[in-house]
Amino acid sequence: MKQGMILVLSVILTLGLSAGEVGSDCTFKGKKLAGKVQFVTSFPDFKVQIVDSFPDLKVKKVTSFPSDCGQWQEVTSFPDFKVQIVTSFPDFKVKYVDSFPGVP
């Protein structure tokens, strides 16, 4: 019984530590965090919280060629990924910036 509890606790701790970790290669769960993004209210690829400090990713909104890390172009169809803005329990946290987007 104790071994089962230890295993469950270690899985919970591992999952808790991995939440919010944007990779140094600018990916989260294998998806590149640059490109065309559609903001949705349900069925997102990622849940994101907008913050002023300690972001996991700095995002610059662009109108074309969103190819570099943290550059997002908002679209209404054919997105590279879908994002839902939340106030709690995000997959990762984002800060909007005017320059130097990417992983802090």
Features:
alpha/beta, 1 helix, six-stranded parallel beta barrel, two-stranded antiparallel ribbon, globular, 104 residues
Describe the main β-sheet briefly. 6 strands, parallel, barrel
Care to count the β-strands? 8
Oligomer state equals: single chain
Terminal CA distance reads 42 Å
Structural class: alpha/beta
Work out the radius of gyration. 16 Å
Keywords: Signal
InterPro entries: Septknot (IPR046148)
Protein name: 7(1) septoil knot domain-containing protein
Pfam families: Septknot (PF19647)
Task: Describe how the helices and strands are arranged.
Elements: H1 2-18, E1 27-28, E2 31-32, E3 35-39, E4 46-50, E5 57-61, E6 71-74, E7 81-85, E8 92-96
Parallel strand pairs: 3-6, 3-7, 4-7, 4-8, 5-6, 5-8
Antiparallel strand pairs: 1-2
Keywords: Signal
Domain 7(1) septoil knot: 31-103
Signal peptide: 1-19
